[in-house]
Design brief:
By secondary structure, the protein is an alpha+beta fold. 23% of the residues lie in helices and 33% in strands. It has 16 helices and 30 strands.
Length: 656
């Protein structure tokens, strides 16, 4: 038997001993624990010891395996004190978890926990910058030094999980002995008993349910009314996230169905997790329910399900505690056809009509040559389906970052957005600045009527390089919709943290629109008119690369929060290669030497053209010179995309 332990470590060297019990007591009280009453036996013991600049918390209720309490306490205390916290766990020296919290949010995960889709992870340059900002104490704790040490830990691949965990903790200056600390003189101790109130017979009047749109967790949301591709003949699980404020007693689910093809519902489930500050703070369910639907009528227009025992405790008065409900539906797709499904979730005193989702059974008609042989990794299988689904029309170009180009980019955005003629559209503007030396990224988001957007004083500043914006997203949506149906993107390349890794800065410009007739009618959008300003602009803009095409993918590229890959890049690179390509000196070579997407109409700059046989390219595509030595390549009738792909093979996104 190897090491087995779970601990919480709070980096709070200045916190005086008398204040420790007060801070922890307040956090545990939020979770329903308090000191035992007279004559009552404590059921939970919490001991705190000091290790270097950390307070290590050992909880008897999860001394060997965290039941979710340590994670919730980490979120609460890191927010209260503004201090980072680490939750560590190791099981029989076989596997480990390391979760990092900052200001109430989980911001990084390593070990087995990194495989949980509900947890936030960062890698490469962003990870090194994050750890340097939170834990750096000396000259050697620069982002560059930490990145090298992180790579060394990953390369070591120790047979003992506690050794690997100790190596990661050393980067934060947390001593290895703290990972399984048992003894030592405690600086604080708490004896606690549960104060869980009984679930009320009915949910309180203040109970509210609202849909929570998470593009990362549920990418298929954001595409309706266009159809999202699902594998024909397979059962797949689709999720809706709902934030619950207040308690719940009982759960009902109504599914409105429009089935054109013979889809079958195979199962439904719902789980409630603690939710705080925009994140699930524990994977231990507050309530759960599951139903098997093998006998469900495939032709039914509605399906009603009930879970009367599904109960979430009402928060104590004044508490801001919430729950996140994760509704899962298992759906088996036929060989062909579409399904539109619209759930309504309700409890006593509250109901929430959730956004509809349209699915299309898909067997990929086109398989890129860069796709590896079956079986594909799950994310690659999804990328292949998305490339075979014309859900989003898009026009994308990458150019050199030049201040002189920005007025024309602003004019392009205004002309395209003005081509959407519906008067009631809402303009959603989201910005992210470049990361500061302190590791912070300033973000803003606001909504204004589209007809007022161009007259706003702040509008011109959105396109001014002096604003130091890394990402500008402008979306157009109908009032009340949770996501836009068309949009504009202006995105600058990241400023790398390591000396010698920076490439010439670039700008990526994109227009996109939902391809469904319903969306076009709602927008008052005519695609040729919408994209015409882009075509005029790109032919004089000296593009490094670009494309005009369709797929179930909304253009979006690297931010300081996350690296982003196109579906073509997902197919052409294995997960370990994608991890290596970004956040390293290899990234500029990748971006300058690889075409990131393939479509019937392309723009290829001189660097990409240098790697091609232009005679072979001219045999399959009409070639037109454009600005800056680039060309526009339009696929000829007959050869097909596979023929174009074969010519482009030397510059396709395949890790070498």
């Amino acid at each position: 038997m190897g090491t087995t332990a779970a601990r919480l470590h709070l980096r709070a060297p200045a916190l005086l001993d008398p204040a420790i019990a007060q801070v922890l007591g307040k956090a545990y009280a939020r979770l329903g624990w308090s000191a035992p009453r007279r004559g009552e036996v404590a059921t939970r013991q919490v001991a705190v010891t000091r290790h270097a600049g950390f307070l290590t918390i050992r909880d008897s209720g999860c001394a060997a395996l965290d039941d979710g309490t340590l994670r919730e306490v980490a979120a609460l205390v890191s927010r209260q004190l503004g201090a980072p916290a680490l939750v560590t766990g190791v099981l029989d020296s076989d596997s480990f978890d390391l979760l990092l919290y900052e200001r109430g949010k989980q911001v990084d995960a390593l070990g087995a926990g990194a495989e949980d889709a509900a947890l936030k992870t960062v890698r490469g340059a962003k990870q090194a910058a994050l750890w340097a900002r939170l834990f750096g104490e000396a000259a050697m704790d620069t982002a560059g030094d930490l990145a090298a040490r992180m790579q060394a830990i990953e390369a070591a691949d120790s047979a003992f999980a506690d050794d690997t965990l100790a190596a990661w903790c050393a980067l934060a200056h947390l001593p290895a002995e703290a990972i399984a600390a048992e003894g030592g003189a405690p600086v604080a101790a708490l004896a606690l008993s549960r104060r869980a109130a009984a679930v009320p017979a009915a949910a309180p009047a203040e109970t509210a349910l609202r849909f929570f749109f998470s593009e990362d967790d549920c990418p298929y949301h954001g595409f309706h009314p266009a159809a999202w591709p699902c594998a024909a003949g397979r059962v797949q699980v689709f999720r809706w996230l709902v934030v619950c404020t207040g308690g719940m007693q009982g759960l009902t689910l109504r599914l409105a169905l429009r089935d054109e093809g013979g889809f079958r519902l195979r199962g439904a489930s719902c789980v409630a997790l603690p939710f705080h500050n925009g994140q699930a703070t524990s994977m231990t369910p507050l309530a759960s329910w599951e139903a098997t639907l093998d006998a469900a009528d495939p032709g039914a227009e509605t399906l009603d399900l009930a879970a009367p025992d599904f109960a979430v405790r009402t928060p104590v008065p004044g508490s801001r505690a919430q729950a996140i409900l994760i509704l899962r539906l298992g759906i088996e797709a036929p060989d062909d056809g579409t399904l539109t499904i619209a759930p309504t979730l309700a409890t006593a005193g509250a109901a929430c009509a959730l956004p509809a989702l349209t699915l299309r059974a898909t067997r990929p008609a086109f398989r890129p040559m860069i796709a590896p042989p079956d079986p594909l990794a799950p994310e690659q299988e999804e990328a292949l389906l998305r490339l075979n689904a014309p859900a989003i029309r898009k026009a994308v170009a990458v150019i050199a970052d030049d201040a002189a180009a920005r007025p024309a980019i602003r004019a392009l955005a205004e002309a395209a957005l003005d081509a959407c003629t519906s008067d009631d559209l809402v303009c959603v503007i989201a910005t992210e600045k470049h990361m500061t030396e302190a590791g912070t990224v300033t973000k803003t988001a606001r909504e204004i009527p589209r007809i007022e957007a161009f007259g706003q004083k702040a509008w011109a500043r959105l396109f001014d390089g002096a604003a130091d914006l890394q990402t500008l997203r402008i979306g157009l949506r109908r009032p009340g919709d949770p996501w836009p149906l068309a949009g504009f993107l202006l995105q600058g390349s990241l400023r790398e943290m390591f000396e010698g890794a920076a490439a010439a800065p670039t700008l990526t410009i994109a227009l996109w629109a939902n391809a469904s007739p319903e969306a076009e009618a709602a927008l008052g959008l005519d695609w040729p008119r919408f994209v015409a300003p882009f075509l005029h602009w790109v032919r004089g803009a000296a593009p490094l690369q670009g494309w005009l095409g369709e797929a179930a993918w909304i253009p979006g590229f690297d931010t300081y929060d996350d690296y982003a890959f196109t579906p073509w890049e997902m197919l052409g690179t294995a997960p370990h290669s994608r991890m290596r390509l970004h956040g390293s000196a290899e990234a500029p070579a990748w971006l300058n030497g690889r075409l990131r997407f393939v479509a019937p109409r392309l723009w290829l700059g001189p660097a990409l053209l240098a790697g091609l046989d232009e005679t072979a390219l001219a045999a399959v595509a009409e070639i037109t010179p454009v600005g800056g030595g680039a060309v526009e390549a339009a696929l000829k009738p007959g050869p097909g995309l596979a023929a174009l792909e074969r010519v482009l093979a030397p510059i396709l996104p395949v890790a070498r």
